[in-house]
Write a structure and sequence with these properties.
With about 300 residues, the chain is mainly α. It is built from 14 helices and two strands. The radius of gyration is 24 Å and the shape is flat.
């Protein structure tokens, strides 16, 4: 296991280098001159030259890229023009609010989705299964923005049960967490149900059922454990978003997380912050995929990491 983990970790280096190179090209070459983006099209040649000299944009691109890699190795993600402070300080303030919003959404969504999927799969073809499928399809048919606007209008504005804006206490997170869970529940339930049904009619399930084990024990101890491999893959794709935040929820509810920081950075052309969020998100996907591959062997002994 350790040898495999070290080999996979080593294999991430060329991919990481490619991600950093692509981000550098997108924000420094394809996106045009950073000076013109920040100073505006009406900026004078002297102002642009002074800006480029201050931030090193007047140097050759190869030198800029090497300097960029060196800064990253030292933990320097750049300097925020909007906030007038290092980007890492800007992002550090947004990590807490983002995690306080996205972690409950992920945990509650997975638990509720698995519970409904287990119930539906155990009653396949019956009225309860049809009801769960119909509800899941209905949830998937509603646009994410509609959930946000409807939740704010009915539960916050009309009923006055929740605050519409702010991050003063945990109570401010109840409505956005509820909306986040409900909006993703339909797709989660359908995927979890399909993964469970792939296992529920396998020969080993028929064997343990012939031994007289109760249905609940079979579902939880045998079926669910073997269905966790595709479920873990599905859930792992959402983990990077825990750190990069929920763009819409944070923007609509005034939560100062990384999603809100990224939106404000785009509006103010603060490219150092936007680039940092893009790079961090891409790197997180790599390491989450590595952790997921290692988790396969722990969940299913039939999976080898050789």
């Amino acid at each position: 296991m350790l040898k495999y983990a070290l080999r996979r970790l080593w294999q991430t280096f060329p991919t990481t280098l490619g991600i950093l190179l692509l981000a550098f090209v997108l924000f420094n070459v394809v996106g045009g001159s950073p000076a013109e983006t920040l100073l505006g099209k009406n900026a004078t040649a002297e102002a642009i030259a002074a800006f480029n000299a201050k931030w090193g944009y007047d140097r050759p691109l190869a030198v800029q890229f090497v300097r960029y890699l060196g800064d990253l190795c030292r933990g320097d993600l750049g300097f925020s023009i909007e906030h007038q402070e290092p980007v890492i300080d800007v992002l550090a303030r947004g990590v807490g609010p983002s995690l306080s919003l996205t972690v409950p959404i992920l945990v509650l969504g997975v638990l509720v989705g698995l519970a409904l999927a287990l119930v539906a799969a155990s009653r396949r073809g019956r009225a309860l299964d049809h009801a769960v499928l119909f509800g899941s399809t209905a949830l998937m048919s509603v646009n994410y923005v509609v959930w946000v606007l409807a939740g704010q209008f009915f539960f916050a504005y009309k009923a006055g049960l929740f605050p519409v804006w702010g991050y003063e206490s945990a109570y401010n997170l109840v409505l956005p967490v509820f909306i986040g869970v409900v909006s993703s529940l339909g797709a989660d339930v359908r995927f979890f149900r399909a993964a469970i049904l792939d296992e529920i009619y396998r020969p080993y399930v028929l064997a343990v059922r012939a031994k007289g084990l109760p249905g609940r024990v079979i579902l939880v101890r045998h079926v669910l454990r073997n269905a966790l491999v595709p479920i873990v893959t599905y859930v792992s794709l959402s983990i990077p978003h825990l750190f990069t935040g929920s763009l819409l929820l944070e923007s609509f509810f005034g939560i100062p997380g990384l999603g809100s920081v990224a939106i404000n950075a785009i509006h103010s052309s603060d490219m150092a912050v936007v680039r940092a969020v893009v790079v961090i998100g891409a790197l997180l996907y790599q390491f989450v995929n590595l952790a997921t591959d290692l988790l396969y062997a722990a969940l299913d002994p039939r999976v080898t990491v050789g």
